[in-house]
Fold each of these.
Amino acid sequence: MVDFKVAAVALALAAAFVPGAAYAQANTAGSAASEIVPATPLPSVPRDQTLILGWSITSPVGVTNPWALPGYTHQEGNNLMFEPLMYYGIYADKYIPWLATSMEYTSKDYTSLEIKLNPAAKWNDGTPVTSKDVVYTFEGQKKNDKLPYHAAFDQYVDTVTAKDDETVEVKFKIPAPRFKFEVLTLKFDTGIPIVNAAWESKQKDVNAAAGGTEIPHSGPYDLVAWNANQKIYNLREDWWAIKAGLQQDPAVKRVVIVNLGGQVGQNMDTVAQRIVNNEMDSSLDMRAQVIGNILAQNPKVQSWTGNDSPYGYLDWWPNSLWVNTQLAPYSDPNVRKAMSLAINRDQINDVLYDGAKIATIYPFPLYPGLQKFIDSPAVKAEEAKYNPGEFNLDKSAQLMTAAGFTKNGDGMWAKDGKTINATIQAFEGIHSDIAPVLVEMLRNGGFDASVNFGTDALQNMIDGVPGFYLSGHGASLKDPYAALELFHGRYSSAIGTSAGNNRYSRYKNPEYDALLDEMAPLGADDPKFQADAAKALGIYWRDTIDIPIIQWLHRIPYNTTYWTNWPSAKNLAMGTNGAFWAHTGMLVITSLKPTQSP
Amino acid sequence: MSTTLKLIVRRLLFLILVIWSASTITFFVPRFSSRNAIRERFAELARTGGFSPDDLDKIIAAMQAQFGLDKPLLQQYGDYLWSVVHLDFGYSLNKYPATVLDLISQALPWTIGLLIVTTILSFIIGNLLGAIAAWPKAPQWMRFVATPFVLLTGVPPVLMGVLLLFFIGFRLKLLPLGGAYSIGVIPNWSWGFALDMGVHQILPGLALILGSVGGWVLSMRGMGVTIQGEDYVNFAEHKGLSGFRIFRDYYLRNALLPQVTGFALALGTVVTSAIVVEGIFGLPGVGTVLQNAIKSNDFPVIYGIVLFITIVIATLMVLLEFVYPLLDPRIRKQ
């Protein structure tokens, strides 16, 4: 009996040692990111001064440093801390000067750019934002190959010089007409924020430094608490932009971002219930059926288009069915055209969008600058020539027959006994409505289609497996160059290698490349640029590089029980989109007004 | 060497063997996949718009080298075994610069708090109800209390959770719809917070308990029926012992013995239940972390969690071998 007691105690101690050793490791390993707990209890903030947002927080707790990768994302509240030289209001089609009062090309060939900083801009520690910070940010991007815009800086930037505390001159190696917009301006989810040189330069490894609450930032909100359940930000009353007259004193004194769990897009049914119950003010965007139900059950919830379909605003991520154009039979443009002819875009609009015209034939969103482009006679002529939106099963059949295919007993196109693999790789969280519709359309056209929502879908796109990839372009916002450049031959990865992000087509065409190369050094207003862009878009349609399907909508629910002045089709405000998680989300949040104020 | 010491040494060696086998299988299985956690993290960020690198391959290659993923597989295996010994799995590939232990230690309280408690409650309620259901002297009405639980046995926790959420949380607004505690509250050591947290655990707890009690009821009832006919129970009755004493000391204690093994195994399945329930109720526990790690092939995190579970279950099994003799004198004598 004594032996057993001793044995039991000994083993219990041994078992206790194991997790104890683990926790000892946790305490001494010097881990970079940890839970953020306020040193003193947070002051109470009433509900009508608190904004509650729902998001699946996937970045590690404590990471606030924009240069910490791959943990950092601006989407989970960090956009409230870091600011850019300028924002862009996409619906107003104008720049919103911020840390910089101006950014102007000083040479006609776009090889030099002068930036003038706002003298009122300050970090939260009271020190001014100076040219030193801008130079450090730019040179960091140029030298550190782990940073997201390193390739752009490496390709274009020659020198960065501080002419004085508020003036920076950038010299480019080659003409860089789009560098100011694409890289230096924050809009949607692209562009770079300015980081604090003093803090970053002290870090042993900037990519591993978490940041926590100690990292200096210029944005209006301080991170005060963060754990696995939520992030809490408090407004700092000394935010420089108020004194500078750029923004009024925000009514939102506290922002709470509730962790919805899982990956972005999961658990949205529960989120919908919480929005209806007024537990949250906004969340990630919803599918059409879900937001319709939310609006029906709580009249205080509105969408971008009020209570009317399509409920959402145009996002920058129009989706196409991409294919690996280096792989047979997708390498045959006639086969690709035949597949495109099986897609009935009018039916997509009727079935999914209550007739709203969301289906598209363009690889970019129709924002004002791009709408102007597609309305040009040159583009209209190309469109008339290639009729990219045509739905015609007979024509599709003719093309497939000419390509050597015959229909088998199941009505599927086949050659040498094999049908064409038309599996659509897609993401269930965001494609659960459109993908099954596309499968049925393709099958009606004789293509052996199905959908793969598995966790390997993304990897399959990257690997270039046979079939379709339903994904967006995420490129152009103001002019068509960025979207068209996705198909430049330099991004065409060989079979057996990984495709770059948004470059799944692996398309290669010297004729197309020549047009893009000619466009690259030209401004978007240049007539030669416009003419080449129209021709390039014509080739995109002629060769059916991918099959454009739908513009992407962000159907974000906005609960007006506590907050009003959300951006909408009738209230464009500063012209930004209405996503609180985008870089411009800070402008949305700081513009909100309490519903219940006198 | 005494018999006891030999037993301990044998069990410990077996424990080490189990941990090594589990570690080795866990190491190699994710490596069979061609998926790349670092690439998928960047691609996910790019897809959701949080990151837009032009030279993704270069960045990924740089990070792969940093994590030692460019070394030969056997060398990586050696490094991995060394890290197992130190219980240090380094950084998460997907959530760098968070370490694996960061992620586990942040998530663990939520899993332990809810799931251990519900597992214990299911065990106690289920076995008690099962014992009563089989006890011939129990009042008739008490014997039918277990019936609803038995009917709910086949209902998976995910469905139970969704139903509870919809009817009790959404329609009736009686309980919160998700989260571990109220929005905006900072965890603290106060009764108010404990109550708040408790209220948030009711629905997830019910989702787990309602579906699992029935299993314990049925197995305990079966054991109870067997033990009723035993000589020692008859002897206790003829001796004139009180009904309660017979129930507790002769009937329940003996019927409980095999259930103890089942309980240890049930604790081991806590994490698999966690994956489901934590997802529905938005609880940031180990199940959620593991699910995300599997989805992104973040194998250091997978290793860490799987190894943690293995160590816990294996240790529990070994401990059980020493607990059993305390419950059953017959084994003690052997």
Amino acid sequence: MNFDIFLFYLFATLALLSAFCTVTSKNPIHSVLFLVFVFFNTAGLLILLGVEFLAMLFLIVYVGAVAVLFLFVMMMLNVKISESTSAIYRYLPIGLFLSILFLFEIYLIVEGDLNSIDVVEFSKLDYSVLQNEFLVNTLWVDSVISPTNVDVIGSVLFTYYSYFFIMASFILLVAMIGAIALTLHRRSDVRRQDIYKQLQRDFEGSTYLVDKKF
Amino acid sequence: MTVFLIVLNVVLKSLALIVPLLVAVAYLTLLERKVMASMQQRRGPNIVGLFGLLQPLADGLKLLVKETILPSSANTVIFIMAPIVTFLLALLIWAVIPFGESMVLVDLNVGVLFVFAISSLGVYGIITAGWSSNSKYAFLGALRSAAQMVSYEVSIGLIIMCVLLCAGSLNLTEIVKAQKEIWYCVPLFPLFLMFFVSALAETNRAPFDLPEAEAELVSGYNTEYAAMGFALFFLGEYANMILMCSMVNIFFLGGWLPLFDVVPFNLIPGVIWFGLKTTGLLFVFVWVRAAFPRYRYDQLMRLGWKVFLPFSLGWVLFISGIFVGLDWLV
């Protein structure tokens, strides 16, 4: 069997199995760890696709940051064992609705022409002059020029999709400010440390006579 | 037959990387004890072998033959998994580190991101160890450690971004080659210092060793571990130390490049240069441990979020501004 195919099935199976375990396992910590495993397998699938940049970002963002915070909160909350199985039926309708919606979206994407995305145009951009009908199938130019993942994604993201990029960053900014605004409440009676003041203190400034009777 | 040869090739290559690494870790512990001892005017280990040179092997043997204890209230599967994960991740990164010109196991195009991704996974070993031990000391140590590592990763990421902007590549070999004219520690000196301090914090070393503050937390997240479990954590931690020093070396001190590209210097092979620089940085790690008192936790967080983060963010803007303004972008 082709090794790539074998790897694909391995990663896909493990991802699905651990995704199932994420939903069903009783202990929330186990759930999070299974979720991490799902992310790992997905990163493996992305590497198989040849988009190693995205795979690494996936690991950094989801596993290295998001899931760690999940785990952190789960451990602090001390939720030992989750509620009984009857709760599953409560969440079933909305879960079903979301998954059907998601399936429909994937169907739409797969149905639509994938080639219409500009990425393909970009990869032909530089050397379209060199291509003739004999070279189309082998694409020797690819092995000569071969722009890396990062080049391609960067060139598309910061040109064609720059507005979306900026919009996404603004949404994140709003979320961040929102989180800060929710948790920020100033109390006047708290004594805070002023590092500059502390460092500026010297002997003369900090010793003085107090005129007070004991 | 060919499959067998391929497997043999991979196994031999990995062993050729892992065995020297483990020896390096063993002798790093000896170096630490000896250097600390001489800084505190003691002798350090000098009984086992000549000048105590066999001490690390004796320590390893002791840990190996001790009894493995599983706490009865621990979550056994995760408890056993945590040290293995830590050790595995510490070994995994070494696959992409270039020791010399084309002396690298896997020359990834996204090498820097790989290193960053895997080192950010190191938190998992620690946090799961702390939680699964079901002990207050271990849990508090793990929480401190995780918070600290996550905080300092942010500034490390931004500093790496500056280096990437200068080198114009995510490939570690390319980054070293880009420093042919001048090591990045000269034009990016503040970043070099910040990266070094962040590396100290990332590896939970003194003066940022709050996760295992002996006086408060016994020994932090690995309190409940005995024998090999503890040894794996120990090996992972020290392998990470060597790794962070290699990263400082690759990003700022020109990796395997000689000090000056003239005759007496460039006759020495690049691997020796790499080793010399990394060892020098490791010495500074130990030196810092002997010289500085431990930070308080709020000071640590303040340094990470209020000093390093804005400063490195500013440097990213500054460097990209210079590059765009002077049209230096590769």
